[in-house]
Amino acid sequence: MAENAMLIPVKIAGAEGGDFYDLRMENAAIIRKAARELYVQAGSLRFEEGIRDKDYIELLRNTIEEFRLLFVDWVAGFDQWNYIKDSWGLFNPPGVHAHDKDPDEDIPFNIDEFFEYGGEDDDDDDF
C-alpha cells in the first residue's frame, strides 16, 4: 500500500514536468493503476483480524474516490496538440494512430549546424 501511495505524487510531478500529452497520459495510466490498487488494498483490510479502527479504511477509500474525480478533470485538461507520436499506439491523442506517419520525420536535422561545429573560430582556448 505504501508503494502505491508514494507512487501517485511522484507520477503527478512527472506528468506536470513533462508537459507532452503522450508522457502525461503514460503517467496518468500509472497513477490510475496505483490508485485502483490502493482502493482494493484498503478494502481488503476490512477482513484483517488485527485492525480495530476500520473507519479509517472507509475514510481512505472515500478520499481515493474524491481524488478520482479530480484526476478525471486533470486528465481532461491535457493539451492534445502538444505531443510526440507514440509509436506503440497507447498514448496518442485522439485521431493520431501508431501507423500514422510521424510529422517530425521530414524535419532535416544536421547536428553540426545545431551545435555550430566546423567554424573558423574553433579554438579550444576560449574557455
Instruction: Sketch the topology as an H/E string, one letter per element.
Output: HHHH
How many domains comprise the coordinates? 1
> In percent terms, what proportion of residues is strand?
under 5%
The SS-based structural class is mainly alpha
Describe the global form.
elongated
| Residue windows where pLDDT falls under 50 for at least 5 positions | none
N/C terminus separation = 52 Å
Q: Count every helix, treating DSSP H or I runs of 4 or more residues as helices.
A: 4
Number of strands: 0
Gyration radius, in Å: 23 Å
**How does the major sheet shape up?**
none
Task: Tell me roughly what share of residues is in helical segments.
Answer: 40-55%
Give the mean pLDDT: 86
Features of this protein?
4 helices; mainly alpha; 127 residues
Structural features, described:
- With 127 residues, the protein is an all-alpha fold.
- It has one domain (1-121).
- It has 4 helices and no strands.
- It is elongated.
Short structural description:
The protein has 127 residues and is mainly alpha-helical. It has helices at residues 2-18, 21-44, 55-76, 111-115.
How do the helices and strands line up, and which of them pair or pack?
Elements: H1 2-18, H2 21-44, H3 55-76, H4 111-115
